[in-house]
Amino acid sequence: MRRVEPAQRPPWALDEATFLDRCTRCDACVKACPTRILLNGDGGFPMVDFAQGECTFCGECVRHCEPAALTPEADEPWLLKARIGAGCIAHQGVECRVCGESCPTGAIRFRPQRGGVAQPDLNLERCNGCGACFAPCPTRAIEVKAGLKAMEQEERV
């Protein structure tokens, strides 16, 4: 049986069950988001869509969440990390550095390759999961998904 992952919730969302219980689907967080990455998802619950832009972690969604389904109590807004997939055109010998140029934390750098194009090198420790690299990627080779530990386990498989 294949596990379906829940939609990516706004930053500082409580665990999925508590979030769904508390969220009244009032759209206050969606309307407050200055980068417009929050949309109404399944059942009218807010979700993140990085195709719209990036999260700046401004906290407006949290400030407007009256039912407290979003709370700034957590150290990190979420456990998302970027991942560069096989569809990356740099992996296929085409010069492209748009993800690195878009990354505000400098988590994506490019390693020169003798006789080839520079390859992306993603530093997961520096990646804050903001999604700034997602929309500019011309091949949609970047995913932004749940945390570092999950990705490390996945890479071992």
Description:
This protein has 157 residues and is of the alpha+beta class. It contains 5 helices and 6 strands. Strands 1-2 form a two-stranded antiparallel ribbon. Strands 3-6 form a two-stranded antiparallel sheet. A two-stranded antiparallel ribbon has the order 4-5. A hairpin with a 2-residue loop joins β4 (108-113) and β5 (116-122). The longest helix has 9 residues, at 148-156.
The general outline is elongated
Number of continuous helical runs = 5
- Report the mean per-residue pLDDT as an integer: 90
As laid out across the biggest beta sheet, the strand order is: 1-2
Could you describe the largest sheet, including whether it forms a barrel? Answer: 2 strands, antiparallel
Q: Residue ranges: pLDDT <50 for 5 or more in a row?
A: 149-157
**What's the helix-strand series?**
HHEEHEHEEEH
Structural class: alpha+beta
* End-to-end separation: 18 Å
Number of strands: 6
Helix content: 10-25%
Q: What fraction strand?
A: 15-25%
Compute the gyration radius: what is it? 17 Å
